[in-house]
């Protein structure tokens, strides 16, 4: 980094310190943003680019976070991406793009993607049962689909948990996506006095999803694990198991809609871009350190939700739901294990 870039880098650090000194901003945010900035700049250097070209995007990121502390954005059960007067969708892609090693990234399942787009053009729907690794998975998916299926990536609807709609560092990215906002089972009891309100919110979200599916032509990404993949004791990233109740809920909601819905597995590898904490945290404001690198997507073949391998062995409805969720998980896990290491 030359002296000119280093000067701008120092100015950005001072901007972070000034932001973190505000009375309504917890002290830890200075450390979080400084670490994030340093790793962000390092990845850009490692990718052979000039970090000065991206200082402005990180500076804008700080401005957007500061706005969230002043005026937190309220997400409705169904949030449609905000593209004006400020383009949050474009911002999210511009921010993440320099972290992605695109030449080494891979996309599998082009035929499945073409079939998915065919269904959508016919006003039918698609639900993607996928693993989930980082808060910025929506942006990573769009970046990898920009050349081949840009509109699909842009219009994809994501089922979003509480963290990405309440953490000021995540909200600017979430505002740029289509989201069905729910409270996951991990956090619905905390605090206990808000449990009923959260349950009613989830009910409204599911009702809105049925409306969308009845309109037709929508694709929805859901992670039935209810959280992100994490590293196990051996240092290996594990694809988190799928919750049978989660899979069943989305299947039942699709059956209530007046338009057909098709189901596909989706495996993704994005972990190193923004690794999550090693353990699940309830408190907001987790560390963000990027390592950058290649990302990978694999769209699997359409799943028959009634006739699937192992389903004939089910002893009752509950057992069938478990076997179905395990089959979906194993399918995603198998595709994930074929990604380049």
Q: Care to describe what's here?
A:
By secondary structure, the chain is of the alpha/beta class. The protein contains 12 helices and 10 strands. It has helices spanning 3-20, 28-46, 55-70, 88-96, 110-121, 137-145, 150-155, 163-166, 171-174, 195-215, 244-256, 317-337, and strands at 78-79, 106-108, 125-130, 157-160, 178-181, 219-222, 230-231, 237-238, 261-269, 296-299. The strands form 2 sheets. Strands 1-5-4-6-3-9-10-2 form an 8-stranded mixed beta sheet, with helices on both faces. Helix 1 runs parallel beside helix 3 (55-70) and helix 4 (88-96) crosses helix 6. The two termini are 30 Å apart. The model has no long low-confidence stretch (mean pLDDT 91).
**Spans with pLDDT under 50 lasting ≥5 residues?**
none
Helix-and-strand structural type: alpha/beta
**What is the count of DSSP helices, taking H or I runs of 4+ residues?**
12
Query: Which percent range fits the helix content?
Result: 40-55%
Strand content: 5-15%
Instruction: Work out the radius of gyration.
Output: 20 Å
Strand order of the largest sheet: 1-5-4-6-3-9-10-2
> In oligomeric terms, what are we looking at?
single chain
**How many strands appear in the DSSP assignment?**
10
Cα(first) to Cα(last) distance is 30 Å
SSE order in H/E notation?
A: HHHEHEHEHHEHHEHEEEHEEH
Bulk shape: globular
Question: Mind describing the biggest β-sheet?
Answer: 8 strands, mixed
Give the mean pLDDT. Answer: 91
């Amino acid at each position: 980094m030359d002296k000119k870039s280093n000067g701008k880098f120092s100015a950005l650090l001072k901007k972070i310190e000034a932001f973190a000194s505000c009375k309504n901003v917890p002290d830890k945010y200075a450390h979080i943003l400084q670490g994030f900035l340093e790793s962000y700049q390092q990845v850009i250097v490692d990718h052979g680019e000039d970090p000065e070209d991206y200082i402005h995007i990180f500076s804008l990121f700080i401005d957007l976070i500061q706005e969230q502390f002043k005026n937190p954005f309220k997400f409705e059960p169904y949030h449609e991406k905000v593209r004006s007067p400020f383009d949050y969708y474009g911002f999210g892609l511009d921010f993440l793009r320099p972290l992605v090693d695109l030449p080494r990234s891979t996309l599998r399942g082009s035929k499945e993607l073409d079939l998915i787009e065919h269904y959508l053009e016919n006003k039918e729907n698609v639900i993607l049962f996928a693993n989930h690794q980082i808060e910025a998975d929506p942006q990573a998916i769009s970046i990898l689909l920009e050349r081949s299926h840009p509109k699909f990536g842009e219009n994809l609807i994501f089922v979003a948990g509480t963290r990405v709609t309440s953490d000021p560092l995540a909200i600017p990215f979430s505002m740029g996506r289509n989201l069905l906002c729910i409270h996951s089972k991990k956090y619905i009891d905390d605090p206990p006095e808000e449990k009923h309100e959260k349950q009613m919110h989830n009910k409204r979200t599911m009702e809105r999803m049925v409306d969308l599916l009845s309109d037709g032509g929508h694709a929805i990404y859901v992670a039935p694990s209810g959280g992100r993949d994490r590293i196990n004791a051996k240092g290996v990233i594990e694809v988190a198991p799928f919750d049978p109740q989660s899979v069943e809920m989305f299947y039942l909601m699709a059956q209530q809609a007046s338009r057909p819905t098709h189901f596909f597995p989706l495996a993704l590898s994005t972990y190193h871009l923004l690794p999550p904490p090693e353990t699940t945290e309830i408190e907001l404001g987790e560390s963000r350190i990027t390592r950058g690198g290649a990302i990978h997507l694999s769209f699997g073949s359409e799943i028959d939700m009634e006739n699937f391998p192992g389903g004939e062995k089910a002893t009752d409805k509950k057992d069938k739901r478990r076997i179905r969720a395990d089959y979906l998980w194993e399918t995603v896990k198998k595709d994930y294990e074929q990604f380049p290491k």
